[in-house]
Amino acid sequence: MRRRLLARRGHRMPLGAPVPLVPLVPDEVPIPDEPLVPDEVPIPDELDVPLLP
Prior knowledge:
Elements: H1 2-16, H2 18-28, H3 30-40, H4 42-51
């Protein structure tokens, strides 16, 4: 009986791994927002170029 319970727990462990991966997906959603910040960095560089001459 105990061996069967341990076997079931072993199956739950692999299933538990994908569960934490689900919350990581929403974490990746804000990551695309970070690339937008670097996109704004080159914009000021272009503004600084015309200001220098």
